[in-house]
Amino acid sequence: MLYDLKAKIAKNHKLTPSIYYLELEIPKLAGLLVPGQFLHVRLLGTTDPLLRRPLSVNRIVNKKNVGIIYKVVGKGTYLLKEMAAGETVDALGPLGNGFDLTKIKNSKNPLIFAAGGMGIAPFVFLSKYLRKKKRKITAFVGMDKKAELVCIDELKNLGCDVKISTEDGSRGFKGYVSTSLEKYLKKRIASSGKRAAREEKPYIYACGPKPMLKALRDVGVKYGLKGQVSLDEMMGCGLGACLGCVVKTRNASNEGVVYKRVCKDGPVFDINEIIWEE
Ligand SMILES: Cc1cc2nc3c(=O)[nH]c(=O)nc-3n(C[C@H](O)[C@H](O)[C@H](O)COP(=O)(O)OP(=O)(O)OC[C@H]3O[C@@H](n4cnc5c(N)ncnc54)[C@H](O)[C@@H]3O)c2cc1C
Fold it and tell me: In the structure, which protein residues have their CB atom closer than 6 angstroms to any atom of ligand 1?
């Protein structure tokens, strides 16, 4: 069931110099959303921007409220940050397929989260969901700099072993999430020796910019890891009609190309399904 709702803003405040927390009162949606899904938010009373803006569900606060974190990058998010509690936006959802958890249901694989930039957004919700299943999670979180890091305490409180990387080295590992993950995998193999070969391999859930996801795919191939990636692609309608967000994927026999819509067929895909080249 898809809802197009007037959503009252419960909270909208700054977390870092450029990232904000938005909490929407949407009781009809709060109980329907699953980790990895997003809302398509439209600002009311303006035609600029005309289109909705996709924002991931960061957390389910309670039976009524849903939390989102967003970075101010352009006009839509700039206007959004100017809004106050009590004002309303239009929220369309639930949209997209969330992370597929059936892939890990009957396994004991340690889980790896890999989040780059605002790709951190869905992982608080996912961690909370998996906490009930008592899964061991190592979360690799990357930002450009320390001052923009968000959700770290939440992930730790939800039981994740958090490994931070920043591009400028202001906190944690200096460099990319993919490099930090590869270092970790090398160390894991070196320290557990033959046991590593017998142990179940980590399973990856990732979200972030395309170059990062492509680099993760390469690490995954090198270490024989499986996983899923959530794509951050600019989109129009969010309903699968405008085809503004298509990406190239491999077909089942790995020969032909299949065009898939990030909004409707994703945003989560198998890590080896996307054709990254070009
Ligand atoms: C499924 C999905 C979930 C998302 N979840 C979140 C989230 O939880 N938090 C968050 O901060 N952002 C999220 N995004 C990205 C967010 O939708 C965009 O940042 C937002 O639409 C920008 O709107 P704007 O009007 O402020 O910027 P615009 O004026 O539209 O664009 C400003 C600049 O940002 C670039 N840009 C715009 N959208 C994207 C995009 N999707 N990917 C890469 N570059 C973009 C433009 O090319 C331009 O350079 C998500 C995107 C998708 C597809």
Answer: 38, 49, 53-56, 68-71, 73-77, 118, 121, 232-235, 267
Contact 61, 78 (CB under 8 A): no
CATH number where 193 lies: 3.40.50.80
The residue with tokens 């949209």 is 95
Strands (E), the chain: 3-14, 19-25, 38-42, 53-56, 59-60, 65-71, 88-95, 111-116, 137-143, 161-166, 173-174, 203-208, 226-231, 246-250, 257-261, 268-270
Kindly report which listed range (21-30, 136-145, 168-177, 188-197) carries the lowest average pLDDT score. 188-197
pLDDT, tens only, 188-221:
877 776 666 667 789 999 999 999 999 999 999 9
Number of domains in the chain: 2
- Domain's final residue, options 57, 75, 95: 95
Q: Return the residue whose CA atom lies nearest to atom 36 of ligand 1.
A: 234
| Same domain? 110 vs 217 | yes
Q: Are 219 and 113 in a shared domain? A: yes
Say how many Å lie between the CA of residue 134 and the centre of ligand 1: 33
The ligand 1 atom at the shortest distance from the C-alpha of residue 234 is 41
Confidence at residue 10, expressed as pLDDT on a 0 to 100 scale? 98
Supply the range of the domain harboring residue 24.
Answer: 3-95
Give the CATH number of the domain where residue 52 resides: 2.40.30.10
If one residue of 51, 232, 245 were mutated to test the ligand 1 pocket, choosing by the most ligand atoms within 8 A of its CB, it would be 232
pTM above 0.85, yes or no: yes
Mean pLDDT along residues 235-251: 88
Whether residues 228 and 107 share a domain: the answer is: yes
Asked if 271 and 229 count as a contact pair (C-beta separation under 8 A), the reply is yes
